[in-house]
Amino acid sequence: MDRDTLKRALENADLTGYEAEAYLTLVDHGRLPAVDVAKKSSVPTSQVYETLRSLEGKGFVETIDQDRLHAEPSDPVNLLTHLRERGELFTDAAEELEDRWEQPDLNEHRVGVVKHTETVLEHVRTQIREAEVAVEVALTAEQFESLRTDLKAAADRDVVIHVAVYYEPDLAARSEEWDLSAPNLEMRVVKIPGPFLAVLDRSRTYFAPNSRAGESYGILINDNILSFINHWYFQTCLWYSWEPLSSNQRLPKTYISLKEFIRDISDVYHGGATVAVTIDGLDVETREFRTVTGTVANIYYPDIFVNHSPSLERLSTYSVVWLDAETEELSIGGWGAVFEDIEAQKITLEAISFDGVDQS
């Protein structure tokens, strides 16, 4: 690298033109009187003393007051560290700008690919702040901590939050600092490693591989069908099979999966309980949002059993709940309902009672 290029590099590392010129002169010649620095460089004599003092303040030169001011370059470790940090900063900035430039606009495309997991997390953070119904997310403890504030805020505004966190040896101790008291926030611990996955409001999905992947990338999805497939993966592999980090059996309890609701209440319903629920969802015919309250009038799924809770396999094909809403009986379907009256987005279990006595 020639001297002019090296000087430009130093200027890009926050040295002024005069400072870069004076510093390179001292590196080339060693200790010099200040007046000789001016003679051997393009720094004016009127500016050389101020320039050397400034370099000394930054730790790049040392000055010695003898009969006249002398200066010599300091050990370059500080400057070398500074240059390397600036180089990493510029490289990271270039990669981020490239990533953002190439980043797809999900308002125009259903699927896009980005280069970095951090980009996926930023998208998810933005969408959590705009979520209205539900967030399902599988992540590491570190990733949860980076999104925790936004997830808690969403739960506080009545968004249902399901968090599947991957097990780590220090998870129990780490989670003691987490506030999981929001009634709409539930966390379960997954004992096998897996990818980062977030499904938001049944329409957007974000995916990134875990640290075992050979390369870093992320997938952004704006599509209901693909989001349903990822929702089903979340439910079957990352949710149903695992225990809550902290048990919350209080009512009311809100579900975002009709199948999970049926699994939990089928046994008590067939045992004679009155099950009161509120359904928030879409009218299948008009696609308008509806909220209805009533009691479960019937439950159906193929090969129905009435003496125990159904397995996920038994519920995987078709299931429906009938709701006695006083003035009408409505059929309630799950995600993607076609033939039912309402496609349930949230099912809130309000109360369970036997012979008029509420159970909690």
TrEMBL record:
Signal peptide: none annotated. Residues 10-67 form the Transcription regulator TrmB N-terminal domain. Residues 111-351 form the Transcription regulator TrmB C-terminal domain. Belongs to the transcriptional regulator TrmB family. This is TrmB family transcriptional regulator. It comes from Halorubrum ejinorense.
